[in-house]
Amino acid sequence: MENERKLTIARAMAEATAQEMRIDPSVFVMGEDIAELGGVFGNTRGLLEEFGKERVRDTPISETGFIGAAVGAAQDGMKPVVELMFVDFFGVCFDAIYNLMAKNTYFSGGKFNVPMVLMTSTGGGYSDAGQHSQCLYGSFAHLPGMKVVSPSNAYDAKGLMTAALRDPNPVIYMYHKGLQGMGWLGTEAGAIVHVPEESYEVEIGKAAIAREGRDVTIVSIAQGVHHGLKAADKLAEQGISAEVVDLRSLVPLDRDTIRASVAKTGRLIVVDEDYHSYGVSGEIIATVTESNMADLKAAPKRIAYPDVPIPFARVMEQHCLPNADKIVAAARDLCGAPVPA
Amino acid sequence: MAARKPKASNVSADELTQFYRDMLLIRRFEEKAGQLYGMGLIGGFCHLYIGQEAVVVGLEAATEEGDKRITSYRDHGHMLACGMDPNGVMAELTGRIGGYSKGKGGSMHMFSAEKHFYGGHGIVGAQVPIGAGLAFADKYKDNGRVTFTYFGDGAANQGQVYETFNMAALWDLPVVFVIENNQYAMGTAMKRSTSTPDIYTRGEAFGIPGEAVDGMDVLAVKAAGEKAVAHCRAGKGPYILEVKTYRYRGHSMSDPAKYRTREEVQKMREERDPIDHVRDLLLTGKHATEDDLKAIDKEIKAIVNASADFSRESPEPPVDELYTDIYAEVS
Ligand SMILES: Cc1ncc(C[n+]2csc(CCOP(=O)(O)OP(=O)(O)O)c2C)c(N)n1
Ligand SMILES: [Mg+2]
After folding, report:
1. Which residue of A has its CA nearest to B257?
2. Are B186 and A60 an interchain contact pair (Cβ–Cβ within 8 Å)?
3. Which one of A267, B57, B138, B251 is at 20 to 30 Å from A18 when CA atoms are compared?
4. Are A160 and A225 within one domain?
5. Apex CA A335: angle with CA A329 and CA A337, to 5°?
6. Full strand arrangement of the beta sheet holding A249-251
7. B96 in A contact zone (CB under 8 Å)
8. Does the beta-carbon distance from A309 to B326 stay under 8 Å?
9. Interval between CA B183 and ligand 2 midpoint (Å)
10. How far from A258 is each of A209, A249, A286, B150, CA to CA, in Å?
11. pLDDT at B5 over 60
12. Which domain range does residue A111 map to?
């Protein structure tokens, strides 16, 4: 519809948070430059104005301190939404995340829940080098005790945020910088979609079929979904019908949807902007090969970031990143079509 | 600026001229980097040092050959001040093979073994323990060297800074902790993030002496630097200098600049500019004429333009470079 309201992921995240804050006084937001500035990536804009400094607070640059404090507050009946500005900075504060946030429910024998949302930006493509451009999906998804989500569009962004805020568990909410709709980071039109005004949830742990197809399954998350959709358009022109699976959640992982799609197409490509080895792409392939090898008509392929620190120079970085052309070439290869020279 | 009395006792006319030259080089280099960024030749975030020039120039004047330095991502000024090649720095900003890190590091990640510059670090506060480690190695080798470890007012709230303070004091490490207090950490004014008005006083809890320094006055900075270095070289352990300074530009090139007023910035530029300060000292002290200074301006402009040319002419790195330097060669 023409005059449907469209939002960016950043605004959808802020809207979901605001709506939940209106009905749940235990929700509060903290992080670096999230209040007065509204977040470096815009996802907390407007919250300070509506909810005030007590509930929307800027923190010092003390990630171990404020993420650890959020764990304490969560165990004491609050619902913190905390931001780690870039996922790359997790190294400073990972103990608070994976040893405390992720394990205190288990180690307390279920006496304490840790209901909190840790938002963090991911992704590169704009020459910010290897301490500001990583995705690290696999690093977080590897460790038990926390859920991990990452939206590809604003509709899912709002629904996943609402679901995360209502979940009694810690949720890592990873948002890709290239999809935030911040002009200076480039804009992915496909991420800016209609978002209903009212509050709703997108179930954590449920993948979506972003596009149906018959010949090959492209599995991805966040920015990779858009590469997959663009590749599917090009492939359609060449007579190859590609199905695109948007994982939306990495933990829990919707293995059934992946398996069902590959059972239908017989071919699998995983697109992952995280490092190639020991990561999400290997997990998706194992999900299929562990259960239905017989359905595979060809060995699966993965298009992932090479195992190198992300370089600054644009030529080198762009060479490494997944893109639609790489997916098209892989799909043609899998489907037995000759790759044009 | 004229209100400030020249108290040029610790410098000669030549040295004063050199300060002018060194600070101007940083200023013009950064202005050029800002232009190249605007033209799309520099990507990512680019953090300019404009306004803070006196800090690094004053402290470099207190160093001896072999002393070390390490800092954050706001590092262009430090590299120029310690004598690194402007061409290599600018070419790294444009991601070219002729850059200090062959285009792999960019603005935030450069190093020079020759000039004892240990980076360029993107994670706030991460350089502080590394600085202590450099000082540890020097003390172990008993070579009399001192390490200058620079970090910001925002970084001063990272826990690792205080772990480092404790060890540096415990082990009497020859390290000068330089807190470049430019009053803001991205969009956060220091008073909104920091419990103490003077950060250097935090050293007291660890037994580390420190002081606040006027960072817009290169002579004051040099004098404080000399005192700190003498303390370290005498084997008395670390020293803290909280240098009060100001950044004129945004945090990086993509700064919405909503957290302070235009007037605040304007006032600093007009009343406290560190380069105008030295310029006035040179002219009122009759150490230089307007023409002398014009000649220097011209010289600096030529150096900066040459670096910009080099940064455009140097080729982009070949894709093979991606796979080199990940691991050191096993010999
Ligand atoms: C661990 C970590 N947290 C947050 C950031 C994002 N960040 C980059 S610079 C900066 C502000 C640092 O301010 P300050 O230490 O005062 O240095 P200045 O930029 O003023 O030179 C922040 C929050 C980061 N790079 N690393
Ligand atoms: Mg600062």
Report:
1. A37
2. no
3. B251
4. no
5. 70
6. A56-58, A27-31, A79-86, A117-122, A171-176, A147-149, A249-251
7. yes
8. yes
9. 5
10. 9, 12, 11, 50
11. no
12. 6-194
| Residue A19 pLDDT class (50, 70, 90 cuts) | very high
Out of A20, A132, A273, A283, pick the active-site residue: A132
CATH of the domain at A288: 3.40.50.920
Q: Which of A30, A44, A61, A90 to mutate to test the interface with B (most CBs of B within 10 A)?
A: A61
Q: What's CA A36's distance to the chain center, in Å?
A: 25
Asked whether residue A183 falls in the same domain as residue A240, the answer is no
Task: Name the residue of chain A whose CA is nearest to B318's CA.
Answer: A316
Same domain? For A159 and A213 the reply is no
Residue B256: pLDDT above 90?
no
**Residue B62: what are its φ and ψ, rounded to 5°?**
-95, 0
- Residue B1 — pLDDT band, cuts 50, 70, 90? very low
pTM of the model: 0.96
The interface predicted TM-score of the complex, written ipTM, equals 0.95
Distance CA A150, CA A119 (A): 10
Nearest CA to ligand 1 atom 8: B124
Question: For residue B101, what is the DSSP state?
Answer: T
A83 annotated active-site: no
Encoding tokens for residue B230? 């003498």
Nearest one of A243, A90, A174, A131 to B72, comparing CA atoms: A131
Give nearest CA residue, ligand 1 atom 25: B123
Locate all alpha helices (DSSP H) within chain B, ordered by sequence.
13-38, 53-60, 76-81, 86-93, 127-141, 159-170, 218-233, 262-272, 274-284, 290-313
Contact: A313, B103; criterion CB under 8 Å: yes
Q: Which atom of ligand 1 is nearest to the CA of B47?
A: 19
- The alpha carbon of residue B159 is apart from the nearest alpha carbon of chain A, in Å, by 7
Q: How far apart are CA B89 and CA B111, in angstroms?
A: 10
Amino acid residing at A203 = E
Measured between beta carbons, the chain B residues lying within 8 angstroms of A184 are 254
- Rounded to an integer, the average pLDDT of A76-94 is 98
- Residue A199: inside a domain: no
What does DSSP assign to residue A125? -
For residues B308 and A83, what is the distance between their CA atoms, to the nearest angstrom?
Answer: 38
Give A101's DSSP letter. Answer: I
Give the distance from residue B52's alpha carbon to the nearest chain A alpha carbon, in angstroms: 21
Rounded to an integer, what is the distance from CA B274 to the centroid of its chain?
A: 14
Q: Is B63 in the pocket of ligand 1 (CB under 6 A)?
A: no
Show the domains of chain B with their CATH numbers.
8-309 (3.40.50.970)
Cβ distance of B101 and A128 shorter than 8 Å:
no
Q: How far away is chain A from the Cα of B103, in angstroms, using its nearest Cα?
A: 5
Count of alpha carbons within 13 angstroms of residue B28, beta-carbon side: 20
Residues of A within 8 A of B124 (CB-CB) are: 61, 89
Please tell me whether residues A188 and A212 are part of one structural domain. Answer: no
CATH number, residue A66: 3.40.50.970
Q: How many angstroms separate the CA atoms of A195 and A332, rounded?
A: 35
Q: Which residues contact A21 (CB under 8 A, 6 or more apart)?
A: A27, A28, A29, A47, A50, A51, A55
Of A281, A207, A209, nearest to A241 by C-alpha is A209
Let me know if A237 is a catalytic residue: no
Task: For residue A318, list chain B residues with Cβ-Cβ distance below 8 A.
Answer: none
**Nearest alpha-carbon partner for A76 in A20, A116, A19, A31:** A116
Domain count, chain A: 2
Burial of B298 by CB count in 10 Å (0-12 exposed, 13-18 middle, 19+ buried)?
A: exposed
| Residues A31-84: tens digit of each pLDDT | 999 999 999 999 999 999 999 999 999 999 999 999 999 999 999 999 999 999
Can you tell me whether residue B174 is helix, strand or coil?
coil
Query: Where is the domain boundary, A136, A160, A194?
Result: A194
- Name the pairing type of β-strands B184-185 and A193-194: unpaired
